[in-house]
Amino acid sequence: MRFSSVSAAITLLLAGASALDKPLDIQIESSTDCSRKTTRGDKVEVHYRGTLEKDGSEFDASYNRGQPLSFHVGKGQVIKGWDEGLLDMCPGDKRRLTIQPEWGYGAKGMGPIPANSVLIFETELVGIAGVKKDEL
């Protein structure tokens, strides 16, 4: 079975689960057209703002540093919610990821993020390394 988007695949995989049981909820804030979308293993640059669902407090934001985060998506270099939620994107796309603890930092927490926190990330794909503009 082939899906036209990660969102459709995740929706199908999680069908029947209550909203609270979904490890990841993806809301597409803006989308652009391109022929080359992100795939596992791509080195990407992403701007983001992370907040806690419980009180809306911001715990980190690349925008504040003026530098997007660079990493290989789908390779375990970031939390699972990002590895799955940032696939199938075009540069310029923006997504809001709501990530349950099991796909975030879980029971251990991390720095200013308390254990078992639901995380909300406003994300923007800045670029895919090695992909020329004419390939997009």
What does the radius of gyration come to?
15 Å
How many H/I helical runs? 3
Largest sheet: 6 strands, antiparallel
Assembly state = single chain
Structural class: alpha+beta
Unreliable stretches, pLDDT < 50, 5 or more residues?
Answer: 1-19
Distance between the termini: 25 Å
Task: Calculate the mean pLDDT score and round it.
Answer: 87
Short structural summary:
The protein is an alpha+beta fold and 136 residues long. It contains 3 helices and 6 strands; from the N terminus they run αβββαβαββ.
What does this structure look like?
- The protein is of the alpha+beta class.
- It is 13% helix and 30% strand.
- The protein contains 3 helices and 6 strands.
- The protein has helices at 6-13, 62-65, 80-85; strands spanning 24-30, 43-52, 58-61, 69-72, 94-99, 119-128.
- Strands 1, 2, 3, 4, 5 and 6 form a 6-stranded antiparallel β-sheet that branches.
- Strand 2 (43-52) and strand 3 form a beta hairpin.
- The longest helix is centred in the first third of the chain and has 8 residues, at 6-13.
- It is globular.
- Residues 1-19 have low confidence and may be disordered.
